[in-house]
Each structure stands twice: as structure tokens, then as C-alpha cells.
Write a structure and sequence with these properties.
two-stranded antiparallel sheet; 338 residues; mainly alpha; single chain
């Protein structure tokens, strides 16, 4: 292809990411009544009950519902590319649909806003902070001190950087990359709109898996065991990428190495990585009483350290976006010249 083809491929793959990030910064979240993740949660709700064979039902749910989400979202992008308008080699409607899906699956501003709110209230009004922190953590906040509240907020910000932002970006990139690789293996030319649809499908699938885990993946819910195990696999790489982004944002690559033994403390095989890296980079102790302690420093986060954590997570999110954009730009070059 010509350089014009390179430009079209780059716009096709990069524009949805750029628009989604801009929408996240501008409005944070789609309205709940039309939020695709909330709509998906309504589909999950009827399965959140006791079953005679919870393992079988749970496995079917863990496989079928995320695949359905991927098919709907990826299929919508592909149909928009086939039947929608094109401009300069770019499928305009497909890019718009892909941007809407990416916006609904990847969220950072809301996380930073709520975390900052809890940090501010922990100083001025701890009771208000105990109410606000419920949006971030599942633990009972009634007995949490202001320092405990700040710790919970920082832990959640680091963990949800991986779950709610890095993971959808990573799977979007992975899906597009696999589509291009399969086209090359088959001896054909990669089509940018097909790679875009595959990326969107992968991001939607990962978000659906994570949503299932957040709703069903508790020890008290046998139907959620398959969802929890699948989420562990889906989040394995994004959790470690998020930890790397935090280390880079803190300009402390060594914090990743020092965090490694601490990352094993939480029961989750993944959440400990971004949390421990944040603790080490900030030099604070993060702790969930009775569950784990991550002694990146001797004391829990002060208000100033917690505010630094909000900025750190925001900067790490920016690094994740830059890395995803760089990969997609390189992929666009492969597509354009294939």
C-alpha cells in the first residue's frame, strides 16, 4: 500500500482509542441507564442464585456470556464497516462504534475522581469518606480509620487501573494483533476494519469476564468459580503491565523488583502486582486488615501521599495509552504494507 494506505490504517486503529480516552476525560462514564456494562450486568443478575449444579451452570455462564458480548460488539463494528460510510479509506461509522465500545469498557477518570474524593474527605469528614469508599472497595468501612480509608482508596486505585483501564486496552491491542497475524499466516492481506473489529471484540470479552468476576466471583457463590478462574487468566498480563506503568510513572523501575515478593501477599494472583508496586513507589504501607499487608514503607498513606497516588495512577494510565497507541501505530504499518 501507499503512505495514504498507512494513514488510513493508522486512523482506523488509533482513532477509536483517541476518541475513547477523550470521552473518558470529558464525561467519565456513559449514563448508567444506557451503559453497556450495566446492561450486561442485568444479564448476569438472574444467574446470581443457588443452583443444583453450580459448577456446570457457572462454566456455561463464564463461556457463553463473554463470547456473546464479544460477538455483539465486534459484529457491530464489522457491520458498520461493511454497510457504513467510508472517508479517505477510513470506515467512519465503524470507528465511531469502536470508540463507543472502548469508552464503555475502559474507565479511568471516574476512578481518579472517586479516589480523590475519599482522600479529601478522610481529612475533613471521615464519615463521608466511609460512604464514598463503598464505590471502590467491598470491605466494611464502618471501623476504618482515616488512614485505613486512604489505604483502601489507594489499593483500589492501583488495582482498578489494571482491571478497568489497562486490561481493556491490552486486550484491544491483542485482538487487533491476532487478527493481523492470522491474515498473514493465511497468506492474505490484513484488513484494518477486520483488525479493528477483532480488537473491539477482545476488549468487550475481557470486560465481560471481569464484570462476571466482580458479580459472581466470591467464595460464597459456587456459580462464580469458573468466572473467577477465567478472570485470573485474563488479568494475568494486564496486572503486570499496569505495575510496570506505575513503576515508569514513578520514575522508579526498581520499585517493580522490590514489589515482587509483596505481590504474593494478597490471595489474588494478580491484584497484588499493581498494589505492591504503588506501595513501594509511594513508600507507604497498604493494608487490608486481616487479609494482607504491603509494607512499601513504614506508615500508611498520609493525605499528601494519597494525593500523590491519585496523580501516579493517572500518569500510569497515560503511559498505558501511549504504549497502546505506539503498538497500534506499528501494527497499522504492518497492515498498510502487507
Amino acid at each position: 500500500m501507499t503512505p495514504t494506505g498507512l494513514s488510513a490504517a493508522a486512523v482506523t486503529l488509533l482513532a477509536p482509542l483517541a476518541v475513547a480516552v477523550a470521552l473518558d476525560l470529558a464525561v467519565a462514564e456513559p449514563p448508567r441507564r444506557v451503559h453497556p456494562v450495566a446492561l450486561f450486568g442485568r444479564l448476569v443478575g438472574p444467574f446470581d442464585r443457588e443452583w443444583e449444579r453450580p459448577g456446570l451452570v457457572g462454566a456455561a455462564v463464564a463461556v457463553a456470556l463473554p463470547l456473546a458480548a464479544a460477538a455483539v460488539c465486534g459484529g457491530a463494528v464489522r457491520l458498520a464497516a461493511v454497510y457504513g460510510p467510508w472517508l479517505g479509506g477510513v470506515p467512519i461509522l465503524a470507528v465511531a462504534v469502536a470508540a463507543a465500545v472502548c469508552f464503555s469498557t475502559a474507565s479511568l477518570r471516574m476512578l481518579l475522581d472517586v479516589t480523590g474524593e475519599v482522600v479529601a474527605e478522610s481529612e475533613a469528614d471521615p464519615d463521608a469518606a466511609r460512604e464514598s469508599v463503598r464505590a471502590l472497595v467491598g470491605r466494611d468501612p464502618a471501623a476504618l480509620s482515616p488512614a485505613d480509608l486512604r489505604s483502601a482508596a489507594v489499593e483500589s486505585a492501583a488495582e482498578n487501573l489494571a482491571d478497568g483501564f489497562v486490561a481493556p486496552l491490552a486486550w484491544f491491542v491483542a485482538g487487533a494483533t491476532v487478527a493481523v497475524a492470522l491474515a498473514a499466516a493465511a497468506g492474505g492481506a490484513a484488513v484494518p476494519s477486520v483488525a479493528l473489529a477483532a480488537g473491539v471484540a477482545a476488549a468487550a470479552w475481557a470486560k465481560a469476564v471481569n464484570t462476571l468476576d466482580s458479580m459472581l466471583g466470591y467464595r460464597s457463590k459456587p456459580v462464580g468459580r469458573a468466572s473467577a478462574r477465567l478472570d485470573d487468566a485474563v488479568m494475568f498480563l494486564p496486572a503486570r503491565v499496569a505495575a510496570g506503568c506505575l513503576a515508569v510513572a514513578a520514575r522508579s523501575p526498581g520499585s517493580l523488583r522490590r514489589a515482587r515478593p509483596l505481590a504474593r501477599e494478597p490471595a489474588s494472583p494478580n491484584s497484588g502486582w499493581p498494589m505492591a508496586t504503588a506501595a513501594v513507589a509511594l513508600g507507604v504501607r497498604l493494608e487490608k486488615p486481616g487479609a494482607y499487608a504491603l509494607p512499601g514503607g513504614p506508615e500508611p498513606p498520609t493525605p499528601a501521599a494519597a494525593r500523590d497516588a491519585v496523580r501516579l495512577v493517572g500518569a500510569a494510565g497515560g503511559i498505558a495509552v501511549a504504549a497502546a497507541a505506539g503498538w497500534l501505530l506499528a501494527l497499522a504499518g504492518v497492515v498498510a504494507w502487507s
